[in-house]
Design brief:
It holds the Pfam family DUF4143. InterPro entries: AAA_14 (IPR041682), DUF4143 (IPR025420), P-loop_NTPase (IPR027417). By secondary structure, the protein is an alpha/beta fold. The chain is 41% helix and 18% strand. The protein has a seven-stranded mixed beta sheet, sandwiched between helices. A five-stranded parallel beta sheet has the order 2-3-4-1-5, with helices on both faces. The chain is globular, with a radius of gyration of 22 Å.
């Protein structure tokens, strides 16, 4: 645990909702650090004087905690251990493993002096039944694997050092993994990280998706998964995926493609970004873009000779960082140009981001700046690249992307 980053933003968020009349739902990819987050939070509660017996922690990944137990058995087991007249903190980890878990959660929520925290690696956790049952009574905290900053912290690298070669470290970050446990495996070599990622990939695909949704044609499913992974940051539609696969001799109906992608988004493997028409100021219903939760998974999905070019990988990392910083994100489009990200911040302000690996020629300078210059409003506009020498123009702020990733204050 010692090289763990403290995940301060997430802990602060949990504390801001502590003892509030809301169920705290921590969601995110398997192994992205949800259980560790609850462990860290529990330690903080104990430090603040909450007694051990006021906290109950159930890990429902362990079969002994749920096999042959129904939701009500667990409910009464928890109830008998509650400390009277004091706040009780109940943690239910991977709660979706219990049939009718929503009744358990709802029952505990209705109990006096009980603060409930649940985690799940599936968006369906909050699908129909639970969301309906708990409407307006939960807050979702969506957790992502380590940011570039957290990754460097976990590797004990001093980010205050002005002479670090960020580019090399960044390539480590995207070629290995951003999953917390994967970073602990670094000393054992890349093969160990690869095996770890492969195991997670298999669990997500087999357990969380193909078994859960009864997918028989696993090959078709994996082909779609690999296709989307190879096209990070490209506008995709179920129709054009279906057509492309047809040319490869596989016939998969576009409705099936759409369903499979939904499952992948539901398991937090991909994040979907809708297009926003900057002229008409409205969200468009087609040609979404998809970003991958962890770049290391590209090694499994696309192979070691990853074809996704580094500009798109950088764009993916910037997307995840904007998400971490609490933005709502679209990709902006006008008739003849495109802006990578249109963001609505937590305070409701708008900001635009364009991402490019490097500005190497007058042509790229023109292209990257002009798509932002075409937007005729006064909201902040940023161009993020790996260049050391930045050149802002016409009100567009050009930043070095590594500095931006490491300095969260630079997001207005």
């Amino acid at each position: 645990m010692e090289n763990y980053t403290n995940r301060k933003e997430y802990i602060d968020k949990l504390f801001s909702y502590k003892d509030k009349d809301l169920i705290k739902v921590v969601s995110g990819l398997r192994r992205s650090g949800k259980s560790t987050l609850l462990e860290l939070y529990r330690e903080q509660l104990l430090k603040k004087g909450i007694e051990q017996k006021q906290i109950q922690f159930y890990n429902f990944e362990l079969p002994e905690n749920y096999v042959n137990k129904s939701w009500d058995t667990i409910y009464f087991e928890i109830k008998t251990k509650l400390v009277e007249n004091k706040p009780n903190y109940i943690f239910l980890d991977e709660v979706q493993n219990i049939p009718s878990f929503e009744k358990l959660v709802d029952g505990l929520f209705a109990t006096q002096n009980v603060d409930v925290y649940i985690t799940g690696s599936n968006a369906y956790l909050l699908s129909s039944e639970l969301a309906t049952l708990l409407s307006g009574r939960y807050i979702e905290i969506s957790i992502l694997p380590f940011s570039f900053n957290e990754y460097l912290t976990a590797r004990n690298i001093d980010t205050k050092n002005k002479y670090l070669n960020y580019e090399t470290l960044f390539f480590d970050y995207i070629n290995e993994t951003s999953l917390p446990k994967g970073i602990e495996l670094r000393d054992a070599g890349f093969d160990k990280i690869y095996e770890y990622l492969e195991a997670i990939y298999k669990t997500i695909v087999e357990k969380d998706i193909t078994q859960r949704h009864k997918i028989n044609d696993k090959r078709a499913f994996e082909n779609i998964l690999k296709f989307v992974a190879s096209n990070i940051g490209n506008a995709l539609s179920p129709n054009n995926i279906s057509t492309t696969l047809k040319q490869d001799g596989q016939s998969i109906h576009h409705a099936t493609v759409e369903k499979y992608i939904d499952y992948l988004v539901g398991s937090f493997v991909f994040y979907k970004v809708n297009r926003f028409d900057l002229k008409g100021r409205k969200q468009l219903a087609t040609q979404e873009k998809y970003y991958l939760v962890d770049m290391g998974l590209l090694n499994i999905l696309v192979g070691k000779e990853r074809t996704t070019e580094r500009g798109h990988i950088l764009e993916n990392i910037v997307y995840l960082e904007l998400l971490r910083r609490g933005n709502k994100i679209w990709t902006g489009t006008t008739r003849n140009s495109e802006v990578d990200f249109v963001c609505k911040t937590k305070t409701g302000a708008i900001a635009y981001y364009q991402v490019a690996w490097q500005i190497t020629s007058d042509k790229t300078i023109e292209r990257e700046f002009s798509s932002l210059e075409k937007i005729k409003d006064n909201y902040p506009k940023f161009l993020l690249t790996t260049d050391d020498f930045t050149q802002s123009r016409s009100g567009i702020i050009h930043l070095n992307v590594f500095n931006w990733l490491l300095n969260s204050n630079e997001n207005i």
